Amino acid sequence: MLEKLPPVAEQEVVGQLKNVHRYRRHAMKLQQKIDRSTESFIRVNATEWSIDMPERERDAINKEVKKIVEAARAGTYENPNIVKLVLNSDLARSHADAMRDEAEKEMEAVAKRLRVFDWVSKQKGAGALGLATIIAETGDLAGYSAPCKVWKRLGFAPYQGLAGSSWKRESWRPRALTKEEWIANPFSGQRYALIHQIATWLVNTQVTGAEKSGTDYGEAKGPYGKIYVARRQKTAAEHADWSKGHARNDALRITMKAFLKDLWNEWNNRSADQACDELQTTAVGGGAADQAKGDLQSKAVRRATSSKKSADQDHGDLQSTVVGGGAADQKIDELQTRVVRRATSSKRTTKAK
Predict the structure, then answer these.
(1) How many angstroms separate the Cα of 91 from the Cα of each of 33, 104, 200?
(2) 338: exposed, middle or buried (Cβ count in 10 Å: 0-12, 13-18, 19+)
(3) Which residues pair with 162 in a beta bridge?
(4) Between the N and C ends of the chain, which has fewer C-beta atoms within 10 Å?
(5) CB of 343 within 8 A of CB of 281?
(6) Alpha-carbon distance 348 to 341, whole Å?
(7) Which tens digit of pLDDT belongs to each residue from 181-200?
(8) Contact indicator for 28, 100 with CB cutoff of 8 Å
(9) Residues 203-247 pLDDT 10s
């Protein structure tokens, strides 16, 4: 077992995780480019796909394409040229596979040196790679004054009742967000997908399948499994119109938020409930503090949007902000932290992100 590092040295470990994760993300992008290119070719040349199709029909075609790829890999697809295309694409992808595998093994080894890994290793379904990914995407959790900000960084904080992923889909959102709203509530689909996978590992380990358990939503085998099942039961009663996929993703999000809160608590040796209560008292309690926070947010957004760049450039800048942390998001967090300090009039000092 690797020797645990003292707190000061953990800063170096965090930096190392972030650096290796960049290589991992690069390998993942190469994998995705090859996969999407292969799927695009099959979609155009082996299905009835059309650019004019409604979104629902396009989704059905995409599912068909994935089945064709699986059949080609198994050697059972009828078109030998498609089979050859898929196998050669997989061969080209193998180099990126090896690069990603090497990076993930290094990240796992490094993450085991963090003090919080002892707690993570005791949670069924959680592991070194998941911890490494979270810390690589967030940085030092001591830099977040409350777990609510960790949720926002990772895309798990809803805006006006909808998850960031919902605002990305035309068929799911009630309207399109403005440029200012996106800057104030940034969302990275890539980052969210990485953490969503960790949530899936966690729930799949802590919940026995519905069919096997003879229940509607599975049987809980751990604390996070209980959160997942309880959320599924709640949304079944309150949102009967939701699809199974919608309900599952919602429950995964709620479960992951609970895990992230507990992780923040273990990292900072502080009550997450207390920290969130302090932040929410300021943000939701109304009065001068709430108004001041809103004013400060508006100022930060106006500064961030003062550029005269084109809409396309602004969109590119937004993506860079989401992936890299971003000056706008950092500025808002700093301003929020100042308001929290004034409103609570506590002697506790918080380290703003």
Answers:
(1) 14, 20, 28
(2) middle
(3) 159
(4) N
(5) yes
(6) 8
(7) 777 777 788 899 999 999 99
(8) yes
(9) 999 999 888 888 988 999 999 999 999 999 999 999 999 999 989
